[in-house]
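Write out this protein's structure.
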Amino acid sequence: MSSKDNSISIDPASEQMLESAASQELELAWDRYQAMLPQCGYGQLGLCCKICVMGPCRIDPFGQGPQKGICGATADIIAARNLARMIAGGAAAHSDHGRDVAHTLLTAASDPNCDYKVIDEKKIRALAEEFGIATEGKSKEELAKAVAEMSFAEFGQQHGELKFAQRAPDDQKKRWREHRVMPRGIDREIVEIMHRTHMGVDNDPKNIILQGIRAALADGWGGSMIATELSDVLFGRPNPLKSMVNLGVMKADEVNILVHGHEPTLSEMLVAASQDPEMIKLAESKGAKGITLAGICCTANEILMRHGIAIAGNFLQQELALSTGAVDAMIVDVQCVMPALGELAKCFHTKLISTSPKAKFPFAEHIEFDESKALDIAKQIIITAIENFPKRKGKNVCIPDIRENMVAGFTAESVFEFLGGRYRPSYRPLNEGIITGRLRGAAAIVGCNNPKIKHDYGHVTMTKELLANDVLVVTTGCTAIADAKAGLLDPGEALQYCGKGLQEICRAVGIPPVLHLGSCVDISRILVVLCNVVSQGGLGASIADLPAAGAAPEWMSEKAVAIGFYVVASGVYTVLGQPLPVQGAEGLTKFLCQDIEDIFGGKFAFESDPVEAAHMMLDHIDRKRSELKLAPVLYPVPYAPKEVAEAAVAV
């Protein structure tokens, strides 16, 4: 754990449920983590290879045993192949999300009886123009159909360049072309990773990683960006709104339905079905006072930022939510759903309902979702939850009375309007704030939870340290939920953690110091924001010039690896709370943490202590300010190194 006490989480609702789960002898992720210790050191260092069955092979990190695999692969080759395959898995997951949204948009545009509609006509016209589609005299449905088809083409394209990659600053595109990592087609780059990492193909570690970067860029500037843009067309662009977060959003006297996963096509229909008067009447007939719909993980962020639906928790709270005994149904689709949920649900009356043909789970009831019958299936799921509600009576229910206010739902467009005002929308106030030193810079903090790290501690501690040093923070995914639970997305409460310059800007503009930009797939919004800042002028010619940094303090998934690589390749210095599994490969580690900066302008760093990591980011931001010859920071905050701070506490 990242702190000295023995607690597992900094979130009081989670701590309460951990005690409750222990008293009931329920097995949770933290128990399984403890049972797994010590974890395989070879795997953590990236030194095991299972690509063919001559092995598995492993390299001795101490130099006493084998230094090559049976085929002759060195530590650098083995670690590079393993890492590239992680990128492929992560890029495939997020990009397939984009493909599914494109399919839904095509269905909405083609079928007048479809439950989905093209909501944002302004955006579909802008996207059509960006794709080079003539818009004059065409309906929004005609344009949506054309955009959906062209989005599909981005996946199968065999040559050329991805359309959204053209949004990047010219300097960044020049780097990508020079080093042959400009993505051609989304699927092609993922397939090429799998080919190159087959036994006996690519055995140059740097060359392997460059192809991994190409696939990561195809995700960030392709599949993920398609998912974000087309979701806005279908479900409406988010706008800042108020809501609440944490396990206390559930209600003992209502039907509690949790949606967990990543696909907005399902969750959008569940929102509509749960608010249907007939469904509410049915719930009342079963003895409930109503229906409470709440989210877990990135599905939570999707329905929060468009409808204000409350969030029950982030990744490591999925089991804790079931442990309350108050969940009548948890509906899951894909990604970050623990296979342990089904067995845990059996300890209660809870129904676990899987919905995707791509993802089935032990002990789950499967109600397959089909976009052509979306609302009917959503109602069927809601009815299943309602009919399960009476089975909760007489059961032990423990809902922590803990919830927090939050403001969420920012986008690249709404930040633009907030900063410059409705009549003169512009990024100029943000740029001017950085140029004049009122703001030190900006940081993006994203990523998962990981039981290796005290729950939420990395996210919240790093965020507070950056805020105190006048750094504006943007966030997505489980980090956003962690920060919201800590009050950092509540404008009234969060300003107490901010430096004087950041306070002044947030008060003047009317925004919280931590901006919620959506789910993990919406990191593509952060890329667009960075492009807009560069385009506004005064802060360099590329993303790599900006006084900005990124971090994932509690990451755990392959998606996070893909995200990290497309962010670094876009020019952003990125600090990971857990190292990539490469540290047994000295040459590869040096390339990722040093040499890659000369190629793309960004690089990785590994640091588990969130305060130390924050100051690594601050050092980078200050270096970029110096290179741009910007004014000194108006309100510098002295930094006490970790050893000094610990000594002060001891005294």
